[in-house]
Write a sequence for this structure.
């Protein structure tokens, strides 16, 4: 066995150790589902009830795939060409012996396995807690909450007609949206669907702090895009591009954004490489043949550089590196209007008797923690699980991350309980749901 194979085998052995909590960085296609399946089977022989193991994924497809893998293994139906077939058979045999001694029959009745999406888990959790009263009784989750968002947005705009402050704020927003009622209603409805992103900031920070956060985010986004563009271009091409008329230094600082935008404008039109060069584009330099030839040469080199067109298009679409005074006024107005819209949404939830998954996650989190400390309910619920496995952890929202913190708050080092986290911080398929890759980094660095 060579060194690489030995290191891989040792890593797999650690990942299957039922006494260890593990954070596994694994990109798509690396066999992480197989590893999750093997660990789940390994853990089955350590618990008195299969429900003591909780496996969480982020999509129904992923949950169904993992459940199918575990069920097939328990039924002896795993693929014969699986490179881990031998390990899988050994783990399955041990799990079945352990289960038989305790009267389980998971091969025929896999319903006792707790493999589910994060949404279904939080819904189940909420139904067990005394938070249902907050939604007027039993929590009914709608899969299509957009109509509720639209109604709350409309109620907000109607309320603005009788409220001077709210009216002034909506008037400012109308002006930014070409005075179209439908555009503002649609914006508010869309934002309500994304409120896991912004609600805590709107409620906890003033307009100045909010704008500072936006500026910091803008700077971070711009730096990332400029760094990616700079890294993609060969040094000689980057140097030549800086000599083009009106371009200048192409660095990674937000101050260099205008130069990058000028480069994109000089070389692209409608997403395609420019063929015709015009006096309007080059200005006085158009009269100079060397300037025209330099630009043509730059375009030719860029066209041979993979991904350069997409990178420059992305740079061209970036906003300014800092908010203007008008932008700051609009953000302050939008924050106040959104705060009102969030209250109207809760009225809609109560009247409709239905809520969305964002509400359920927040309500469950609130019931599990008070003043930052886990409640007795959280401790009792968390202790019901001996092992928790989380797939695609990079897609975890802050509220979901905090919920996991509350569930594991009573766990002690060496008590036999483990947390197994799998994720790829380079990929996040649910950014629209407040998925924060930074949480993956936090978990990796602080445990």
């Amino acid at each position: 066995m060579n060194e690489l194979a030995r290191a891989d085998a040792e890593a797999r052995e650690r990942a299957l150790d039922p006494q260890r909590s593990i954070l596994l960085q694994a990109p798509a296609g690396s066999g992480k589902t197989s590893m999750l399946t093997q660990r789940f089977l390994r853990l089955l022989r350590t618990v008195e009830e299969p429900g003591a193991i909780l496996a969480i994924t982020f999509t129904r497809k992923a949950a169904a795939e993992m459940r199918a893998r575990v069920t097939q293994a328990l039924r002896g139906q795993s693929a014969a060409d699986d490179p881990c077939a031998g390990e899988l058979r050994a783990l399955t045999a041990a799990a079945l012996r352990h289960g038989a001694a305790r009267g389980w029959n998971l091969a025929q009745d896999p319903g006792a396995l707790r493999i589910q999406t994060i949404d279904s888990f939080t819904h189940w959790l909420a139904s067990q807690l005394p938070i249902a009263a907050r939604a007027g009784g039993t929590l009914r989750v709608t899969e299509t909450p957009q109509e509720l968002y639209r109604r709350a947005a409309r109620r907000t705009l109607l309320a603005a007609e009788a409220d001077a402050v709210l009216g002034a704020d909506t008037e400012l927003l109308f002006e930014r949206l070409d005075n179209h009622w439908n555009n503002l209603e649609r914006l508010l409805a869309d934002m309500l669907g994304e409120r896991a992103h912004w609600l805590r900031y709107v409620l906890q920070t003033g307009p100045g702090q909010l704008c500072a956060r936006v500026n910091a985010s803008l700077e971070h986004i711009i730096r990332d895009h400029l760094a990616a563009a700079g890294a993609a271009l060969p040094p000689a091409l980057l140097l030549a591009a800086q000599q083009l008329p009106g371009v200048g230094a192409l660095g990674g600082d937000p101050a260099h954004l205008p130069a990058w935008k000028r480069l994109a404008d000089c070389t692209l039109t409608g997403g395609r490489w420019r063929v015709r060069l015009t006096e309007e584009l080059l200005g006085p330099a158009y009269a100079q043949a060397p300037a025209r030839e330099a630009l043509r040469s730059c375009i030719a080199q860029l066209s041979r550089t993979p991904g350069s067109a997409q990178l420059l298009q992305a740079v061209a679409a970036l906003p300014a590196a800092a908010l203007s005074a008008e932008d700051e006024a609009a953000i302050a107005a939008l924050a106040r209007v959104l705060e009102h819209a969030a209250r109207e949404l809760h009225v809609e939830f109560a009247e409709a008797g239905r809520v969305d998954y964002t509400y359920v996650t927040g309500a469950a989190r609130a019931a599990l923690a008070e003043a930052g400390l886990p409640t007795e309910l959280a401790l009792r619920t968390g202790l019901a699980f001996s092992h928790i496995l989380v797939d695609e952890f990079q897609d975890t929202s802050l509220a979901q991350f905090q919920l996991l913190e509350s569930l594991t708050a009573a766990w002690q080092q060496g008590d036999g309980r483990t947390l197994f986290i799998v994720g790829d911080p380079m990929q996040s398929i649910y950014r629209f749901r407040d998925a924060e890759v930074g949480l993956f980094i936090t978990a990796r660095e602080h445990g």
Summary: The chain has a mean pLDDT of 84.
